[in-house]
Amino acid sequence: MEIKVDKTTCTGCSLCKNFCMYDAIEITGGKAIINDNCIFCGACIDACKFKSIEITGIHEKNFDFSAYSGVMIFIEQHEGTVAEVSYELLSEGRKLADALGSKLYGIMPGYELKEKISGIFNYGIDRLYIADNEIFKHNIDDIYSKILVQAINKYRPDIFLGGATSFGRTLLPKVAAIIKTGLTADCTALSIDPEKKILLQTRPTFGGNVLATIITRNARPQMATVRPHVMAKEPVQNAENRQTDNYLKYSDRIEFLEFDPLNFKTKYKLLSREKELGQSINLSDYDVIVSGGRGIGGPDNFSLIKELADSLGGVVGASRAAVDSNWISYPHQVGQTGKTVNPKVYIACGISGAIQHLAGMQTSDIIIAINRDPDAPIFKIANYGIVGDLFEIIPRLIKKIKNGKGIT
Ligand SMILES: Cc1cc2nc3c(=O)[nH]c(=O)nc-3n(C[C@H](O)[C@H](O)[C@H](O)COP(=O)(O)OP(=O)(O)OC[C@H]3O[C@@H](n4cnc5c(N)ncnc54)[C@H](O)[C@@H]3O)c2cc1C
Ligand code: SF4
Ligand code: SF4
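Above: inputs. Below: predicted complex with iron/sulfur cluster.
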């Protein structure tokens, strides 16, 4: 592969240099010169108005993907309880399948699932593939990857999606590696290119400062993981009036996968299961989240944040700065590398509003910020801002709430 600048048309305007993230372009003698830092990302080609840059030597192949069709969702469950993100993905999957004029499939490995699956049919699923066996009782990626690979090879979905949960983040890359396709992790948006009918997989990159849209050009299925709570959970209206827990009502759309459990060996041995301390906290179960950041000054002051949260029936969240300082455990972290939340009310106390924090909470219905710096970026997205010392403001808020005067 080679990248060339046409010296006869290059005006030295340096637009390409501004777009190159890799310091690969210098303007010398009024012309763009590309150095060895170039990774052939192609950003400069789109930037140049004079069409002066060209990458040559890319061998385009005409792949035949006609055997692949439909959107398949990995339905994640833990001890029979379906993960919320799976419903969100089914909702998104239905839209993608409609845009392609194709079908929506689910694949669900687990144990004793039959009576626990009826809710899945409220999301417009055309066919649910189930692998029900004791070998899937615990979520072990070694075992799960084998059944997913078997299903993908047999049913050949064009698109395969899973949740970017701790389990999904381990499992799906393994599956993608085995079947030799790509995987875009942690997508925040998915859509179908109307002309090429391919999946556009959008995710934040460069610390959340840029949104990259990625395509899978040379392999199928097009695989992506999506973080919980990024996409809406939208049951298909009037799709099902069969309100029942009896799976037989849906038997026309269920297929039990055939496999030999003896082939599903794992190198892991499960000795015991322990719940991580604080892991039981699920921020998304609450309408009100009160988060503390570095501005609260130390671990003990989280008691003040908790008191405010308790007075509103909410839960305590945190910025990464507070988590990294070991003031509070990771399950409380909100943001790009923590939880994505969208409560009715989000109160940020002593949090500056870094882009990575905003990535996890900016879709909250109402954002209230308490910060002593009037120029803190959090105020740019806050519906209500209180400039001042949180140690004065929060006790006053708590007092007012407890006196029944509300937060106003
Ligand atoms: C790849 C990557 C991923 C990241 N992921 C996350 C993530 O998931 N979540 C996340 O939160 N961050 C994340 N970060 C870190 C992020 O960039 C910020 O460093 C972090 O959010 C800062 O936390 P903070 O706002 O608590 O601290 P600071 O930025 O230090 O802000 C503290 C704020 O408290 C205010 N303050 C101080 N004292 C008081 C007081 N007495 N009363 C009122 N206000 C006061 C200050 O004015 C200041 O605005 C990530 C960074 C990177 C590079
Ligand atoms: S953007 Fe195009 S014209 Fe401008 S310096 Fe770069 S290569 Fe030359
Ligand atoms: S292809 Fe990408 S890395 Fe190479 S010079 Fe252009 S923008 Fe920079």
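DSSP finds ten helices and 21 strands in the chain.
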